[in-house]
């Protein structure tokens, strides 16, 4: 039976050096809005889509989000340029065991990989590409597709089906892997099984409050990680 595994990026696959994203968002939006953005206007990014972050900041400084929408492609282009300058090996840390896990799943002919990430598309592949992990994820859904993360899983599944010229993947043979309550919620809202990993900003105890199907501390033990993932897939 074919299965689809949709990965989050930040806190799940890798960590981008703390503080850089917040700094770049503030700088770019200050130029766009032509006004200073206080720290209090910038939300915690954990699990949020980039579009939602921009929306929240605009609301917090009394700028109408609908006035920004026509400029959104310009925003992504500018953000991509800014992130390129900082997407260096020293700023990207791959989390324990992730490379071996991804490679093992990728090499399973019955398993396909995709993304469900809050990063806008260009930035998602930019971050993954620093350590060569972009090759494992042909498509997915991104933080530029919708401000609401809960809307992303159906987009990802549809794109994976289109990419592989199939209709085999659906909510019932897909799982989501992520590190925040928002990853858990977006899976649950779409009746998709979810494995939460405590390698981001939330402990396994904090993640368990949201009732994911499984929680692991990290992926450092490949055999255990695969067993947990395949046990979820085999119950679908």
Strand order of the largest sheet: 5-4-1-6-7-8
Low-confidence stretches: none
Helix content: 40-55%
- Mind describing the biggest β-sheet? 6 strands, parallel
Q: What's the order of the H and E elements?
A: EEHHHHEHEHEHEHEHEH
Give the N-to-C terminal Cα separation: 10 Å
CATH superfamily of the largest domain: HAD superfamily/HAD-like
What is the CATH C-level name of the largest domain?
Alpha Beta
- Strand percentage: 5-15%
Question: How would you classify the helix and strand content by structural class?
Answer: alpha/beta
Morphology: globular
Q: Average pLDDT value?
A: 94
CATH architecture of the largest domain: 3-Layer(aba) Sandwich
Radius of gyration: 17 Å
**Fold-level CATH name of the largest domain:** Rossmann fold
Give the number of DSSP strands: 8
Describe this structure in words.
The protein folds into two domains: 3-16 and 92-233, HAD superfamily/HAD-like (Rossmann fold, 3-Layer(aba) Sandwich), CATH 3.40.50.1000; 20-86, DNA polymerase, domain 1 (Orthogonal Bundle), CATH 1.10.150. Helix content is 42%, strand content 14%. The protein has ten helices and eight strands. The strands form two sheets. It has a six-stranded parallel sheet, with helices on both faces. It has a two-stranded antiparallel sheet with strand order 2-3. It is globular. The mean pLDDT is 94.
Question: Could you outline the blueprint of secondary structure elements for this entry?
Answer:
Layout lengths: L2 E5 L6 E3 L3 H14 L16 H11 L4 H4 L3 H15 L5 E3 L3 H9 L4 E6 L4 H10 L9 E2 L10 H12 L10 E5 L2 H8 L4 E5 L6 H5 L5 E3 L5 H12 L3
Parallel strand pairs: 1-4, 1-6, 4-5, 6-7, 7-8
Antiparallel strand pairs: 2-3
């Amino acid at each position: 039976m074919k299965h689809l595994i949709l990965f989050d990026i930040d806190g799940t696959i890798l960590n981008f050096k703390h503080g850089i994203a917040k700094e770049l968002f503030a700088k770019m939006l200050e130029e766009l809005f032509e006004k200073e953005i206080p720290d209090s206007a910038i939300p915690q990014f954990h699990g949020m889509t980039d579009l939602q972050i921009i929306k929240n900041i605009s609301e917090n400084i009394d700028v109408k989000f609908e006035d920004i929408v026509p400029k959104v492609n310009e925003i992504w282009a500018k953000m991509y340029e800014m992130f390129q300058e900082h997407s260096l090996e020293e700023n990207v840390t791959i989390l324990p065991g992730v490379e071996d896990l991804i490679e093992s799943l990728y090499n399973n002919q019955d398993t396909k990989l995709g993304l469900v990430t809050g990063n806008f598309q260009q930035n998602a592949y930019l971050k993954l590409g620093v350590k060569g992990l972009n090759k494992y994820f042909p498509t997915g859904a991104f933080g530029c597709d919708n401000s609401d993360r809960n809307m992303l899983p159906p987009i990802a599944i549809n794109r994976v089906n289109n990419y592989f010229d199939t209709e085999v993947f659906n909510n019932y043979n897909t799982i989501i892997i992520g590190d925040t309550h928002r990853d858990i919620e977006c899976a649950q809202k779409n009746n998709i099984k979810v494995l939460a990993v405590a390698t981001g900003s939330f402990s396994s105890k904090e993640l368990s409050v949201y009732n994911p199907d499984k929680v692991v501390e990290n992926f450092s033990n490949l055999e255990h990680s695969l067993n947990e993932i395949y046990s979820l897939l085999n119950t679908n």
